[in-house]
Every structure is written in C-alpha cells, then in structure tokens.
Design brief:
The protein has one domain: Glucose-6-phosphate isomerase like protein, domain 1 (Rossmann fold). The protein is built from 7 helices and 5 strands; from the N terminus they run H-H-E-H-E-H-H-E-H-E-E-H. The protein has a 5-stranded parallel β-sheet, with helices on both faces.
C-alpha cells in the first residue's frame, strides 16, 4: 500500500469512527448538560487519563474552563508522581480523586482500551464517592470501563490514534455545544 492509499484508508476509518449518530448526539448533549449543571452548582469537572488520554484530559480541562466557563482540572506531574509513589500506579487516580474532589464534582475517565487498572480503580472510587462519571473507551465492545459511567462513549476501533482522536473530537464537540457555536476567537479582543 502506498502513502496515498494508506491515508485514504485512514480517512475512511476515522470517518466511520467519528460519525455522530443519534446515540452520540444524546451522549454529547448529556455531557454538556452535566457540565453546565456542575458550573451552576459551583462544582468542577475532574478529568483523568494515561499518556495520550492524559494529554486530552489536560487540553479539555483548559478549554472547558477558559472557553466553556466550567471549572475543570487534571492533576499535574508532581501530584501524579507523588500519588503513584505513595499508593502505586494502579491507585494514583483513585487517590487523587479522593483528595481533590468535592461533593457534586463530575469525573471524566479516558482510556483507549478501557482496561487500564488505574482508570478502573478511578471509576470504582467515583461510584463510592457518589460522583457522576463519564467514560471514554474504545477497542473491544465489552471492555470493563464501558458501561461504568452514567454517560458512556465508546469508539469502534482498535487503533489508538483513531480512538484518541475521536475521544478528543467528542469532548471538544461537547464544549462547543455548551458554548453554542463552533467558531470563536481564541482570546477576546482587547
């Protein structure tokens, strides 16, 4: 397969995965509504992931706060390494949630495979704390994260980059739906 054929196939795969049907419209609308309710109640959104999913969490936390007006956070490297050192890699997210959450906060758990032990422990902790949870996963339809949230997103792909791209797309779509438009300046005119 040459480069043009590879990229044409890639475009088709991404297009299939990113398609927004009635189920995605419903889930994205629920996510927007949950975020809006948390902001109105003085609560925040906490986002978690590993690797590329952590980068997506950071990006969404920034845009949701700055552009969407909804307070959102992720844990920084010093908090992550401290918690992983003290509680182990499989527990750092759950312990971070325990320490930084407040009643009424909303949790977003992102895992491409839906099998990351620390993300699954996070989901358990969110339930134990009575916090609403949105999950983002991909790969196998029966992955253990899928179905654990009050709002669940699943990408029908086994390609990390496609799954991560679609997760970010859906999250950004929810922010733009919250704002009410897809085109706006990065910063207000001065």
């Amino acid at each position: 397969m040459n480069d043009a054929e590879f990229l044409a196939d890639y475009e088709v795969r991404l297009g299939r995965a990113v398609k927004i049907g009635p189920q995605e419209v419903h889930a994205i609308s629920l996510l927007r509504d949950a975020w809006r309710a948390r902001a109105a109640a003085g609560c925040k959104v906490m986002l978690f992931g590993n690797g590329g999913s952590a980068a997506i969490a950071q990006h969404i936390a920034t845009d949701l706060t700055k552009n969407g007006g909804v307070p959102a956070v992720t844990l920084d490297a010093s908090a992550i390494t401290c918690l992983a050192n003290d509680f182990g890699h499989e527990k750092w997210m759950a312990e971070g949630l325990r320490l930084w959450h407040r009643p009424g906060d909303f949790v977003v758990a992102i895992s491409s495979s839906g099998r990351s032990p620390n993300v699954l422990a996070l989901a358990d902790r969110a339930h134990a704390l009575g916090l609403e949870l949105a999950t983002f996963s991909g790969f196998a339809p029966d992955n253990p994260l899928r179905g654990r949230g009050q709002i669940d997103f699943w990408v029908d792909s086994r390609a990390y980059n496609i799954v991560e791209t679609v997760h970010q797309f859906w999250l950004m779509a929810a922010i733009d739906l919250l704002i009410g438009r897809a085109e706006y300046p990065a910063s207000p005119a001065r």
